[in-house]
Design goal:
single chain, alpha+beta, three-stranded mixed sheet, globular
Length: about 230
């Protein structure tokens, strides 16, 4: 049942822009979780913010409220050897609960985010390529990664939110470029756009300007397995 849920949700995500954006929202909150588990959370508890199993919540002094229903994710189990000699990993179901299902008062806390300067400094400190301030970018372009010189040019005089949104998107391009001279930005525009959205969601930057009404058509023709690989 769980594997069918993963496949069905992956197919839904590829067909529906609202569902796709909801998937990115879940992935932004659970970025260390696998795609399969992010899809399971989306299908069962899309508003989850912090999850743990019953025993872990108990150890932390938080108890699950009566009549609350848990949801399932996959937990890696033991390794095993397939018939062809390769090694696989078995997965076990693990029942989880969100903090909203506990009596923990922390569920009512408002998230705190770094200030503008700290957010932008963090992006720039971990940049894989040089970042240059420019006043000669094309109209409507706030930042631009240039594969030939492996530099990012960013428009001078923008507000902090615009800087973060533009810079995070071009940094995604720089990260995906292996430097072999074959990188084509047009082929990865949607990937970089998604990365930028996730980072903004994680660090409290306004995302009202992002739109996922148009999902790449290539996703529509993919199998559930291929969609998961793309995600």
């Amino acid at each position: 049942m769980v594997y069918s849920m993963i496949e069905n949700t992956a197919e839904d995500v590829a067909r529906d822009g609202v569902k796709f954006q909801s998937y990115l929202d879940v992935q932004s909150r659970f970025d260390y979780y696998s795609v399969a588990n992010a899809l399971l959370i989306l299908a069962q508890k899309p508003d989850a913010t912090r999850i743990a199993d019953f025993d872990t919540w108990k150890e932390q002094g938080a108890y699950i409220r009566k009549k609350e229903t848990g949801f399932y994710i996959l937990e890696p189990g033991d390794e095993y050897r397939r018939d062809d000699g390769t090694v696989g990993i078995s997965y076990n179901l693990k029942k989880m609960f969100d903090i909203s299902q506990t009596g923990d008062s922390r569920k009512r806390e408002t998230p705190t985010y770094p200030d503008d300067r700290t957010r932008i400094k963090a992006l720039m400190d971990h940049a894989p390529v040089p970042i240059c301030i420019s006043d000669a970018l094309p109209e409507g372009t706030n930042a631009l990664y240039q594969p030939d010189t492996r530099e990012i040019h960013i428009r001078k005089g923008m507000d902090a939110g615009s800087i973060f949104r533009a810079l995070s998107q071009e940094l995604a391009h720089a990260e995906m470029d292996t430097g072999d001279g074959r990188y084509r930005q047009a082929e990865h525009t949607f990937h970089a756009y998604c990365v930028s959205y996730i980072l903004c969601k994680q660090y409290g930057v306004d995302t009202s300007g992002y739109s996922f009404d148009r999902i790449p058509q290539v996703l529509e023709g993919m199998s559930a397995k291929e969609i998961r690989a793309e995600l």
